[in-house]
């Protein structure tokens, strides 16, 4: 057997995926499992997007594209960011990637040297740490609190920035909490990182799924922030593996070279189909679906509170609720397993998102219709007695 690289020991498991496997196994045994675990919308790509994919396939448009992506798609995303999030950008700065994961990989490879430290909030999306580790960097989780909306703060950066720190990786709205960073706090955080000469990678995958004031992109505050986004969540194209990043001009040449070798290009048929996402009639479909997610959130929040599953911060984006189960159990992992096996409801234990809140928190994903959410609540009510 060959000796595995040491980084393999540092790569964290993804417990949400393991829970997904357990739920699938129970389904295969004939049990009806309601999964509030995996963050995958029940909606799929709208018909016009699928039709465009089929036409592109018939037309033979499945060959390689340039490493940075189709020019027309880069231009469409640049216009979308200007119209939707008040952050017009030049299309040359848009890089089409193999999902947001591909964007995070390119960002990590372009910015992180071995031994570099990157600050992240605890809780945060677990795979983010693995991208840092894969580039030879050191992820450092900083405990956050409900008072901070479970987000990294400027004060956190000030207190924890050390000789090896090179930047921060943040998300707004966040997975697992669904919370956005308050504009004033984000402005202060950006200023603090810049005072140290550091980089900011901002995950805006859930920016289109907002419940409140229309959001702005972080690019409004600082044009040199590295933006990560995707067609998976708001555009409901998870398995199409298509995302993008927006980068400063001085990174374009380096990212182009990296992308040419590491991925050659993002899936070409998916790129052609994605152009249809930005047509007005299709955007109207997405807007109606966003309102459906808001309706689900507004149903599930009070129901969880009535069950004694306290939600410390109301989520104002994404499709996640981060709930405190300590009234019922001191161990969220045990609670999650019992909930799955006895009530056939899947929810992700807190250890997936960092150790600080691990034992008392569960993440619920409201990516199912109201009828299934109502059934899940009924099952949980019986489970809790």
From TrEMBL:
<protein>
    <submittedName>
        <fullName>Pyridoxal phosphate-dependent aminotransferase</fullName>
    </submittedName>
</protein>
<dbReference type="InterPro" id="IPR004839">
    <property type="entry name" value="Aminotransferase_I/II_large"/>
</dbReference>
<dbReference type="InterPro" id="IPR015424">
    <property type="entry name" value="PyrdxlP-dep_Trfase"/>
</dbReference>
<dbReference type="Pfam" id="PF00155">
    <property type="entry name" value="Aminotran_1_2"/>
</dbReference>
<dbReference type="InterPro" id="IPR015421">
    <property type="entry name" value="PyrdxlP-dep_Trfase_major"/>
</dbReference>
<dbReference type="GO" id="GO:0006520">
    <property type="term" value="P:amino acid metabolic process"/>
</dbReference>
<keyword id="KW-0032">Aminotransferase</keyword>
<feature type="domain" description="Aminotransferase class I/classII large">
    <location>
        <begin position="32"/>
        <end position="379"/>
    </location>
</feature>
<keyword id="KW-0808">Transferase</keyword>
<keyword id="KW-0663">Pyridoxal phosphate</keyword>
<comment type="similarity">
    <text>Belongs to the class-I pyridoxal-phosphate-dependent aminotransferase family.</text>
</comment>
<dbReference type="GO" id="GO:0030170">
    <property type="term" value="F:pyridoxal phosphate binding"/>
</dbReference>
<dbReference type="GO" id="GO:0008483">
    <property type="term" value="F:transaminase activity"/>
</dbReference>
<dbReference type="InterPro" id="IPR050596">
    <property type="entry name" value="AspAT/PAT-like"/>
</dbReference>
């Amino acid at each position: 057997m060959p000796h595995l690289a040491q980084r393999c020991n540092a790569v964290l498991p993804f417990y949400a995926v393991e829970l997904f496997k357990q739920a699938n196994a129970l389904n295969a045994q004939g049990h009806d499992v309601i999964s509030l675990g995996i963050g995958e919308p029940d909606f799929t790509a709208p018909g016009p997007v699928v039709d465009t994919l089929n036409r592109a396939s018939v037309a033979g448009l499945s060959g390689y594209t340039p490493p940075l992506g189709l020019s027309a798609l880069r231009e469409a995303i640049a216009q979308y960011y200007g119209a939707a999030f008040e952050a017009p950008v030049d299309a040359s700065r848009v890089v089409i990637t193999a999902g947001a994961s591909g964007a995070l990989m390119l960002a990590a490879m372009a910015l992180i040297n071995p031994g570099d430290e990157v600050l992240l909030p605890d809780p945060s999306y677990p795979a983010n740490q693995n991208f840092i580790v894969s580039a030879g960097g050191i992820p450092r989780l900083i405990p956050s609190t409900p008072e901070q909306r479970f987000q990294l703060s400027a004060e956190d950066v000030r207190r924890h920035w050390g000789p090896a720190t090179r930047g921060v990786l943040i998300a707004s709205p966040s997975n697992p909490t669904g919370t956005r960073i308050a504009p004033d706090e984000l402005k202060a955080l950006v200023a603090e990182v810049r005072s140290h000469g550091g980089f900011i990678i901002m995950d805006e995958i859930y920016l289109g799924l907002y419940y409140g004031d229309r959001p702005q992109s972080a690019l409004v505050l600082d044009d040199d922030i590295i933006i990560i986004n995707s067609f998976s969540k708001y555009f409901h194209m998870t398995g199409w593996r298509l995302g993008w990043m927006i980068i400063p001009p001085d990174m374009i040449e380096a990212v182009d070279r990296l992308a040419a070798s590491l991925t050659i290009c993002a899936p070409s048929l998916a790129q052609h189909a994605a152009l249809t996402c930005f047509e007005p009639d299709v955007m109207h479909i997405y807007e109606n679906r966003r309102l459906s997610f808001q309706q689900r959130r507004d149903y599930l929040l009070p129901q969880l509170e009535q069950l004694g599953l306290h939600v410390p911060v109301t989520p104002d984006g994404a499709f996640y609720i981060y709930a405190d189960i300590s009234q019922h159990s001191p161990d969220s992992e045990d609670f999650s397993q019992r909930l799955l096996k006895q009530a056939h409801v899947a929810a992700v234990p807190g250890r997936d998102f960092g150790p600080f809140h691990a034992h008392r928190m569960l993440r619920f994903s409201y990516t199912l219709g109201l009828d299934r959410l109502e059934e899940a609540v009924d099952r949980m009510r019986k489970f809790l007695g």
